[in-house]
Structures are given as C-alpha cells and as structure tokens.
User: Which sequence fits this backbone?
C-alpha cells in the first residue's frame, strides 16, 4: 500500500487567476441545490471540460474540505484554487465563490421577509428541499464512482450503511465517523479492478 500513488498531481492546463475567479463566481453562486450540486457541476467543469485537475486532486480537495470545521464549500473551492494555481488561485476561488453569494443571500433574505407567509413560496421551498436531497445523492455518486471497483462494492455499501446507522441511530458526530472511516480505509488492502 505504501507504493500506491493516491493523488496524481499532473493536471495539464494551468488556468489564469481571472479564469478561476470567473468559474467560481459563476458556478459556486448560481448553481441551484446547494453545495452538493455545486460540487457536481464543478466536477464537470474542472475535470471534464477544462482539464485543470486530475480526478484524484479533485477528490482530495473534496475529502479534505469535509474533514475541517466551517463552510465546506468555501474550503473546497479554496482547495481547488490552490491545486490549480497555488496561492493566487486559492484567493481567486475563495473570493469568486463567496462575495457574489453573500450579496445574493442578503438580497434574497430581504425579499423573503416580505413573502415568507405566501403558500406558493412555502410550496416552492418544500420542492427545493426535496430536489436538494436528490442532488446530494447524485453528488455522492459522482465523487464515489471513480473509486468503486468490482471487489470493493460490498465494502463501500457496508461502510455507507454503517455510517448512516452511527450518525442517525447513535448520534455520533459526522467528523468522528469520517475520521474512523479514514482509518479503516488506510488499514484495508487496496481493491483492484
């Protein structure tokens, strides 16, 4: 396992700082469905369309952003910016992902205070919540799919179900479950296709 390369760091295109800021301003702020939907869209844009990072670099940023406290999406965007163009990329990604959305939330909050008791608005919010759950499940699959090989499917299912039981059934904090799964993953042999 020590000779395994987990993260390849050979992305082929180094974006300009303005391209990073533009990408995150556009997709981190105007993708409906929250952070999970944004990660899924950014995966398509950064890996499939622009070829800025490798799959393993993207996954590493996703995993590290989930392990730290605070706003995971901003941590994820900053990590992607760092991988793409180091310090300048990290700053551009963070500002692009945060400033427009902060202003948008301010405006939406002000408008919502006028319409919060409207039945149509309440129905729209319930529909948006259902959609956000579906988007979260899809994002989990987008992140997990490259790592699923024939021999690991049963183990992945067991870890997923076990994690849900620990979280919902025993009220164990998510960070404790994530760290425990990381230890288990480090100790298990690597499954081969």
Assistant:
């Amino acid at each position: 396992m020590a000779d395994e390369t987990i993260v390849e760091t050979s992305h082929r295109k180094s974006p300009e700082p303005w391209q990073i800021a533009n990408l995150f301003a556009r997709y981190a702020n105007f993708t409906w469905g929250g952070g999970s939907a944004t990660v899924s869209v950014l995966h398509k844009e950064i890996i499939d369309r622009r070829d800025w990072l490798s799959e393993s670099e993207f996954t590493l940023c996703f995993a590290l952003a989930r392990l730290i406290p605070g706003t995971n999406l901003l941590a994820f965007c900053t990590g992607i910016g760092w991988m793409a163009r180091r310090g300048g990329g990290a700053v551009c990604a963070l500002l692009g992902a945060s400033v427009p959305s902060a202003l948008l939330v301010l405006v939406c909050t002000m408008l919502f205070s006028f319409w919060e008791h409207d039945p149509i608005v309440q129905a729209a919010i319930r529909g948006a919540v259902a959609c956000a759950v579906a988007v979260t499940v899809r994002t989990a699959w987008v992140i997990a799919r490259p790592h699923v090989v024939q021999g690991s499917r049963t183990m992945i299912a067991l870890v997923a179900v076990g994690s849900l039981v620990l979280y919902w059934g025993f009220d164990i904090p998510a960070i404790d479950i994530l760290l425990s799964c990381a230890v288990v993953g480090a100790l298990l042999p690597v499954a081969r296709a």
In short: DSSP finds seven helices and no strands in the chain. The radius of gyration is 19 Å. The CA atoms of residues 64 and 76 lie 8 Å apart.
